[in-house]
Design brief:
By secondary structure, the protein is an alpha/beta fold. It folds into 2 domains: about 1-80 and about 155-225, 3-Layer(aba) Sandwich (Rossmann fold), CATH 3.40.50.300; about 90-155, no CATH class. The protein has helices spanning about 40-50, 70-75, 95-100, 115-125, 140-155, 170-185, 195-205, 220-225, 225-235; strands at about 5-15, 15-25, 30-35, 55-60, 65, 80, 160, 190-195, 205-210, 215-220, 240-245, 245-250. Strands 6-7-8-3-9-10 form a 6-stranded mixed β-sheet, sandwiched between helices. It is globular, with a radius of gyration of 19 Å.
Length: about 260
């Protein structure tokens, strides 16, 4: 299996440094949560890690090779990525959308695993009942789950998920993070961008906290998601409860009974 290493990565967008000198290593078998306020650079850093966007300075290595050394098809067999937009313009059947995840393996011996990989992905994401629907007719949450199934069907050693729970109800949020944990337990490298700090605290092995494009903190959930640090970075007072070694983050709401 394959890990990721970012070395002094900076990303310039339109003359503005969005990511500043980030060092980050994610080994195989780990689930890392990338968190931070809006505009902190989480999605940009994830795009750089994936090889979709080349750093302005520094480098990202997948295994022992820099991302720019991989051909695009080779990279697609190393890592899969769920983006925020889940955009599919044409009214494809859901089954066709999921099958798109297998395209990097066409004309390789792995194509024989297509049916198995697709079946596992649709079952894991609870979309089997949607397979004959048109993607364009789905709700936002259903589209998000179908897009995740496409990523899972790609069956890569590295899985990168950008806000995969944003459009999901409570049950499916938990399902997505449970799937991410299972992927890490299988020996994959998993990086998830999350806004829900309690989800990050509950499921991640480590948390990387970004602030203004810089790595503010990196460590276990209880090390990073402290009352002082979260309150400072997010500019909101919070209370952190630790249950079974996992932090639960609760905003303080003055004037509301119980707060």
């Amino acid at each position: 299996m394959t890990g990721i290493r970012a070395e002094q990565v900076s990303v310039d967008l339109g003359g503005r440094l969005v990511v500043h000198d980030v060092d980050l290593e994610v080994p195989t078998g780990e689930l890392l949560a990338l968190v931070g306020p809006n505009g902190a650079g989480k999605s940009t850093l994830l795009a750089a890690i994936s090889g979709e966007r080349q750093p302005s300075s520094g480098r990202v290595l997948i295994g022992e090779r820099a991302t720019h050394e991989y051909a695009s098809l080779e990279l697609a067999r190393m890592r899969s990525m769920l983006t925020q937009d889940n955009a599919v313009s044409f009214p494809f059947l859901v089954s066709d959308v999921v099958e798109m995840g297998r395209s990097p393996w066409a004309r390789t011996p792995d194509r024989e695993r297509d049916a198995e990989a697709i079946s596992q992905a649709t079952t894991r994401t609870d979309i089997t009942h949607l397979l004959e629907r048109r993607f364009t007719e789905l709700s936002g949450g259903e589209k998000a789950r179908v897009s995740l199934a496409r990523v899972l069907a790609q069956d890569t050693p590295i899985v990168l998920l950008d806000e995969p729970t944003a459009a999901l109800d409570l049950r499916h949020q938990e399902d997505v993070l449970r799937i991410a944990r299972e992927l890490a337990a299988e020996g994959r490298t998993v990086v998830v961008v999350l806004h829900d700090l309690s989800l990050a605290g509950a499921y991640a092995d480590r948390v990387a906290l970004l602030e203004d494009g810089r790595m503010r903190a990196l460590g276990t959930p209880v090390e990073v998601l402290t009352e002082q640090l979260v309150s400072e970075v997010y500019a909101v007072d919070v209370e952190v409860l630790v249950r079974d070694g996992r932090p639960l983050i609760i905003p303080k709401r003055p004037g509301i009974p119980g707060h």
